[in-house]
Amino acid sequence: MLNVPKISIIVPVWNRQDLIERCLDSILNQTVKPYEVIVVDNGSTDRTFEKVDHWMQKNSEKGIRFKLLSEPKSGACQARQKGLENSEGEFINFFDSDDEMRPALLETAINKIQENPKSHIICWSCRINLLDGSKKIPTVINKNLLESHLVHALLRPQGYIVRKDFLINAGGWSKPIKVWNDYELGLRLLLKEPSIIFVNQQLAEIYSQTESITGKNFSSKHGEWEKTLNEMEKVVDSSNHSQKKKIKKILDYRRVILAAHYYREGKIKEGKDLYRKTIKNKLFGEKLYLKFSYNFTRYGFRGAWRIVRFFY
Known about the structure:
Layout: E1 7-13, H1 20-28, E2 36-41, H2 48-58, E3 65-70, H3 76-85, E4 91-94, E5 100-101, H4 105-115, E6 121-129, E7 135-136, H5 145-152, E8 160-163, H6 164-169, H7 181-191, E9 196-207, H8 224-237, H9 244-264, H10 268-279, H11 284-298, H12 305-308
Parallel strand pairs: 1-2, 1-4, 2-3, 6-9
Antiparallel strand pairs: 4-8, 5-9, 6-7, 6-8
């Protein structure tokens, strides 16, 4: 029988007393159980901590190690890092407390690890359930997972497991980034050119929430998104990756899309300022593609990357 790798599931949680049990039940109902489940309460002011404690006691005989930790420093990065530092598994999955695993998620991931024992990351598709009732499945460009992450956030916490030592070597959740922290970490992981296996199946359900760390729109966190993109550009500059130039161009694409969202949300000056700052000193061709992407999105259309990606 093939060796079954130990997988630690880390769930950061803040004020999710009505949702956390749905998430934990979906982990418990996996066809192959994880080695351990670590829940890190990030200073909840409702009954989340008590609910998790009761759930763990109720399910203590299910053959899974449970740990309930507290992290007083606010922010998902701090909570996830606390869980990482207290984990014992070979592979780590950071799963959000709002969401659900489909029953075969861990079994599918473990099968891929057994087939590819030198792999660093196993990732899969997720279905996003939006507030208006519609559903979205982010595009995955199977031949270029780096591009898929930069444009469509492939390595979202619900969407992959990673070898623990590889994650630590990449720096873990060490950066105190307020928004898009998973997006930034995903880039750092991919810059190390891991052996990565993509599973073309939807293995997790993501549920948008009216109350979340990032908020319902971009304008509510104006300035923070830009800080994350700037931090990512610094990481790229310090790397020796063969696609450095392309990565930086895609980050500029993300900036003009962000600028377009600001404009659509009523922060017209902020949108125009970010757009102008981004295209300043760009060559004519790149400036043309960025201008198209900005206006395409500003007027309410989606998917500019499907058109402009062939010019990058």
